[in-house]
Each structure stands twice: as structure tokens, then as C-alpha cells.
Amino acid sequence: MSDLRRAKIIVTGLVQGVGYRYFVMRNADNLNLNGYTQNLFTGEVLTEVEGDFGLINEFIKQLKIGPMKAHVTNCSVEWTEYKNEFKRFEVRH
Question: Mind listing the domains of the chain with CATH numbers?
């Protein structure tokens, strides 16, 4: 049985204007995770994701690296209870 969880992830650094959100979406789709990602006014990128705990951990490892033009300086994760709120993964504007 899988361990379903939810994570709120905030990534800091050079993560806006470098294709970071679409990198996040591709990785989430590849891992079968649902949720969304969006730019924040602070220059950070927020991602909320639901799915298997192990897959989310793998996803977080990828987010810490980011696409080639990005430079991630920090990645904070807040774990919460799985809510089955999302049916797919999307980029919000």
C-alpha cells in the first residue's frame, strides 16, 4: 500500500524566467504526481503536490537541481495530510 502525502514546496533562487515551472510540471507528470506550481511575487516558486511519499521525495530532489538556466539556493518543504484535491498537475499564472 502506498503512503499518500501532500507537500508544499517553496524554491528560492534564480527560478523565474528560466522555464522552472515547466520543468516542475514535466517532472511531476513523469512521476504521476498531481498539484500545481506558480510564481510568487517574492521571486520564489511555490509548488503544491500530492502523491506517493517516495515519489514526492524524488520530485523534491529534482526541484533542488532545476533546469539548466536556474540556480536554486533554497528549497523548503512542509508536509501535510493527503487531501486528493488535484486531478492533474498544472502551471498557474
Answer: 4-82 (3.30.70.100)
